[in-house]
Model the fold of this input.
Amino acid sequence: VQREMSTLPRVYVTRQIPPEGLKILRESGQVQFELWDSDDAPVPRKELLQKVKGVDGLVCVLTEKIDAELLDAAGPNLKVLSTMSVGFDHLSLDELKKSLLIFKHLVTYSVAELTVALLLTTSRRLVEATHEAKTGGWGTWRTLWLCGYELANSTVGILGLGRIGVAIAERLAPFKVKKFIYTDIAPRPELASIINAEYVSFDELAKQSDFLTVCCALTPETKEICNKDLFSKMKNTSIFINTSRGGVVNQEDLYEALSTGQIAGAGLDVTVPEPLPTNHPLFTLKNCVILPHIASASYTTRNAMSALAANNLLLGLRGEPMIKELKL
Ligand code: DGY
Done:
């Protein structure tokens, strides 16, 4: 058995991923794998660089930078990289282009649900409201106290229309949104027709949106695309929501826009850095709701992501097409 084991492809898993994925790897009989057996902290870089030496496959999460240094440390055996994430900004794509297969994956439902929750939490000021109720701020019923903005008759703007943007719009539509608009590198008529969304310029998106939700990937083109130029064109009654990546936002500009009343509020599930230091200025603002990157954190989705990461790794190692492969 020992001898047989040692001929199997070697895989390193950089996190104690949810049980479904580990079970698939364990029961496959196709690989031998080692694991950073913790979910509380990422594997230290030094250890990671040691552990990947000579591996055939790697399963990672978004805390690992997969760059030239790591690929060099892994060496030429490495054929498949499977990331348990839909985001891929932790991967240096230019380096990967040389050889690797990687996949990206489905978090659509849980991200869309959380985005709706964050949007309503921000627009209806729920965090402020529970704080007031708990700490004695709740006096007599007052006519304009804790008023927010409603979705009914609003225009919702989507920055970067993909499956997640569509799923968000589908969930918001029953709130009687008046109009969905979106912008992207180019119109995406097939997706847009599902939600009856109109393609507009970036400027129009800023000007017209009562709620602007960011759904694009972080790439060199989208880095800090949400900056003072965008915020200054938004209405001062508008709500900004980001569940994609913190890097698409210039946080100083956002702070400025929120603290001067340029926009009404922001809900962020993602920041730079993560975790955001507790003394960060954004935490001082009542009109900014910050969540610790939990958009995909439902038991169903995280287990599905784990299973898919494992299955894709096995497919890739067998030389078969992977599910949701990222075409490089
Ligand atoms: C992703 O998949 O990229 C999310 O940010 C975490 O699930």
About this structure: DSSP finds 13 helices and 13 strands in the chain. The first helix runs from residue 2 to 7.
